[in-house]
Amino acid sequence: MKKYDVMVIGSGFAGMAAALFAARRGLSVVQAGATGGIDFSTGFIDLLAVHPIAEQKVWEDPFAALAALRRDLPAHPFCRVSDGEIRLALEEFTSFLGEHGLCYRGREGKNTLTLTAAGTMKPTYLLPCTAWSGVEAWEAKAPALLVDFYGLKGLSARQIAEVRGDWPGLRTARVRFPGMGGELYPEHMAWSMADPARREELSKTVAPLAADVQYIGFPAILGMTDTGAVLSHMQELLGKKVFEIPTLPPSIAGPRLRAAFDRGLPPLGVRTCTQKLITRAVCSDEGFQFTAGSGSTSVELFAHSAILASGRFFGKGLKADRHSIREAVFDLPVTQPENRSLWHRPGFFDPRGHEVNQAGIETDNLLRPLDADGQPFHPRLRAAGAILAHQDWMRMKCGAGLAIATAYKAVISL
Amino acid sequence: MDFFSIGLALACLSAVCGTILRVRKWFTRGKAMAGSTHHGPRSLRWAAGLADLILLRRTRGGLRRRGHALLILGFLPLLFLHAMDGVVTRPLFAAYEPTLDPWQFLRNLFGLVSLAGLALLLWNRTARLRPLSAAQDWALLAVVGGILVSGFFLESLKIMSEADFTRMADDYFPEAESGELLALKAYWAAENGARFSVFLPTAPEMLEQGAELHEDRCAGCHSPTSSAFVSRSMAALPLSPAMADRGRAAFWYLHVGLAFLGLSLLPWGKFLHPLSTGANLLVRGGSRNSQAQNPPPARGLGLDACTRCGQCSLHCSVAPIHTVMGNADILPMDKLSDLRRHLDARLSPVETGILAEGSHICTECLRCTEFCSAGIDLQDLWMTSKQMLSKAGRAGVDGEIRKSTAGEWAREFASGRLGAIGGTGAGLADQAESFWGCVQCTTCTGVCPVVAVSEDPSRDLDLTPQQIMNLLRMGLKSQTLGARMVWSCATCYKCQEHCPQDVPVADILYELRQLGAEVLREKEGRS
């Protein structure tokens, strides 16, 4: 059996980032995890936008927000990483994505408001370049056309226009997507846009409707692995600035990220055990013996170190039953409400969020998970991402940033 | 008219008439195989076909190949030089006598070589092909083996036989005095293994006189029996002269009778394969690919060229399905035999259903065609016969299901006329746990390549994968069974691999198809 330096458990933002950072630092890496979770990403890389959540205070400067957060919430995982480490992590992560066809853009030290499928403006730190013209258009309130498609459920241009009363220059149009009918699915549309002929057909449909606008927005379907080229070809064909808005999850943004890592990690020497959850873990002084997957396709793996980036409930890192929450791989102690009746508040949209969304595992400053006595569970085990306790990444708008930053810290502290 | 003439005439009649009937079927069956027809003349590569035939280039497996090589090298000379000596050997070689060398020696050599080859083939069939073997496979081995073994016994008993000696002496040494006859007998008993009921002297001068008489009277037609090295060594068997005489007569009938039986059975089943397989190899001209446009007689010949060697069935890509379902017509060898019966209108409706099911499970992967040692263009036969069966209303479960809409099937399933659907009710599609985690996120549909190639999924496929999962978790299984998505699934497993909630989407779709197949079997009365 081959021995690895690091086993990365998880294939979401944190797992992908940890595998990338570890491989870039010359470590031999094996990664396991389900492929499904990251498919639900919007593609936006949030850093921190809302704090405190009960007040729903939105920050323009995420680093100022971080300073406030570290002051108010000493248990928050962002207290384990410095601003410098966060900047380095995001830089390394987005430059890797850029090398694999996913260009990212943002404003140094500033959150940017970007359009969502619901028509709301979401503060985020870095966003795909394909969405950037949408930001410019909204900020300038420039005349723009928002296109949606018959049969595509994930985005309604009219919904967006109605919510965006502050943008009178925004018009909408619904068109037939060339070559497809009935119910449409973003991944199929995106793949079909790889064909330049399909782009020409689409632009011919849209061009007559867009004579008097400067910007044209589409649901995110502009290509799968070559979005930059598809976008610039569409701009050329239409003679306007073109942008994308991610559709409701699962949008194409997630599969694009997954595809970029599928392309980029193996050349760095990362062995990926796709669609295999860790089903057994045995710890020893030398390291960790893992079984990935189950049945005839399971594999045995040994690693000297491990990074637990298995996510919360959707990622299967935490398992909830009728009474309590358990950690799935090492059965680490999980910080959680005393009983199930305290998991959720009575109001689903309560601005304070729900206690269960702060559940997770405790770590020390080096992100080493702690056992029941508060001691490091294993000297070479680290944790990163959503599985960490005392953070509600959804409401704080810090999901990807927290995952990438803690993955970076976990790797460099090994 | 004696036994020999009548037997020979009957055997020849059976062989000739039967072969004519078989060859006629090459044309009638070939014509019955409708479908793509022959376009233009085909260039035949005789040399490659001839090389396949002579060098046994397609005969796979060491045992089979060596066995066949030995059997052919031994049996063909026996057939022409020994069995047909009256029309071949005697006219060609003026001094021919079966009891002279080299003929006597060669007969034993060829017989032994044949037997060795036959033993390898028997070993091969017993060790590797027993589950695939039928009566005719064992019958052919038994008849050929019987001819060879009875021949050795016949020769050894002839060597021993006193009656034969007496008959020969009466014919060729009628003037012998009793002393001379005694000396000759003594010589034959000592040197050639003959057995006599009288006590014979062993004095050297008697034997010397016997040797002189032998040289004078017998040696012109008799080489020493020791050159018949197999039969002569069998002449050491402990038999009384009377038993040897009776046995000699019995084995003559046995040997000649088995030879006639073999000849008359030539047009029966695989007994023809030495001819039909050879012809097919020549016609195929060395090709291991499918021609797809074979003219009808070539198709008919291919149908008839099977040697039942079992290689196709052993290497069939869908053999595991046969293991599970037990339908013999999934495996190429049995399917070919039932296809012939179908073309001859000898299959019952239920058997035709079995043939159709087996045919439609075939994935046309070409493996059987590549492996066929008879060089049969099986791929062409399967593709054509599938079309033929579909046209005759036997479109297989996939085709039958597509004849009605999902809604029509749902009504039929709900009517209860087809019995309880779902068998035990313990399948993946019946268990709530299968869909526990489903959040209807559409990932399965989004990654599905079958949905992707459809211009309008609801028009082409009725339901998408996530819609099927949703109906199933609501207990509406009958609504899903006829959905064309289920029947168009390529089982690529992308849906299942990408499902964030571990729903076994592809396994469930596959299970629904199994169920559909069960329903069709029930409808056709095959369950």
Secondary structural class of chain A: alpha/beta
- What is the makeup of the main sheet of chain A? 7 strands, mixed
Query: What Rg of chain A is obtained from the alpha carbons, in whole angstroms?
Result: 22 Å
Report on the biggest sheet of chain B: none
Topology pattern of chain B, helix = H, strand = E = HHHHHHHHHHHHHHHHHHHHHHHHHHHHHH
CATH superfamily of the largest domain in chain A: FAD/NAD(P)-binding domain
By DSSP, the count of extended strands of chain A is 19
Mean pLDDT rating of chain A: 96
CATH architecture of the largest domain in chain A, please? 3-Layer(bba) Sandwich
The number of helical elements of chain B comes to 30
Helix fraction of chain A by DSSP (H/I, runs of at least 4): 25-40%
Shape-level CATH architecture of the largest domain in chain B: Orthogonal Bundle
Largest interface in this structure: A-B, 22 and 21 residues
CATH fold name of the largest domain in chain A, please? FAD/NAD(P)-binding domain
N- to C-terminal distance of chain B: 57 Å
Helix content of chain B: 55-70%
- Overall strand count of chain B: 0
Give unreliable regions of chain B as ranges.
none
CATH top-level class of the largest domain in chain B: Mainly Alpha
Number of domains of chain A: 2
**In angstroms, what is the radius of gyration of chain B?**
33 Å
